[in-house]
Design brief:
The protein is 30% helix and 13% strand. The chain is of the alpha/beta class. The chain has a domain of 121 residues: 3-Layer(aba) Sandwich (Rossmann fold), CATH 3.40.50.
């Protein structure tokens, strides 16, 4: 299985953030790693596999992942599963922007990774990474629940190895004709 981690840009922190002692960084990363509140943005059949991963047989709560956050403002992790259409792209971006920092994204399934079998359609976004930054890609059509568990473990390893300046480096602007740029960010 090919689960590819990707760096997600975030807002810049002040220069004093680098002065935090290393043990404090380890404790903060440990807390973030084992208390991920998930906001599932299920758009198609992959959402059923997400639900299966959260049930008793696979039980990703044992990994420190709490499924079904009340909303994006209480979530740390967004799992985008299913076909993202051009019409749905602004909603995905808006909900991602409502999540507090630090925030992470898992692209779950071929459709959210690259458009899947519908990549040739004029209405399908060719991957959710054109709209929001993605931390981990989980391939498959649909991926099995075990693949999501592996994606979560990959994300947790990435979180454990994060440094504060590395995570909050200057944001790289995502350029896509699907979503208008935020005027307040300039």
């Amino acid at each position: 299985m090919d689960v590819r981690p990707v760096r997600s840009p975030g807002p810049a922190l002040g220069p004093l953030a680098r002065l935090a002692p290393e043990p404090m960084k380890v404790v903060l990363n440990w807390g973030r790693r084992y208390s991920l509140w998930v906001f599932n943005f299920g758009l198609a059949c992959c959402a059923i596999e997400f639900i299966a991963a959260s049930m008793a047989r696979h039980d990703f709560i044992r990994l420190g992942v709490i499924p079904f956050a009340p909303g994006p403002r209480q979530a740390d992790l967004m799992v985008v599963s299913g076909t993202v259409t051009d019409k749905m792209a602004p909603a995905v971006k808006r909900l991602y922007e409502q999540m507090p920092e630090p925030k992470y994204v898992i692209s779950f399934g071929a459709c959210s990774n690259c458009g899947g079998p519908y990549w040739d359609s004029y209405t399908v976004t060719k991957g959710v990474d054109q709209i929001i930054p993605v931390d981990v890609y989980v391939p498959g059509c649909p991926p099995r629940p075990e693949a999501l568990l592996q994606g979560v473990l990959t994300l947790q390893e990435k979180i454990a190895n994060e440094s504060v300046p590395g995570r909050y480096a200057s944001p790289a602007a995502l350029t896509s004709g699907l979503v208008a740029p935020d005027e307040d960010a300039r």
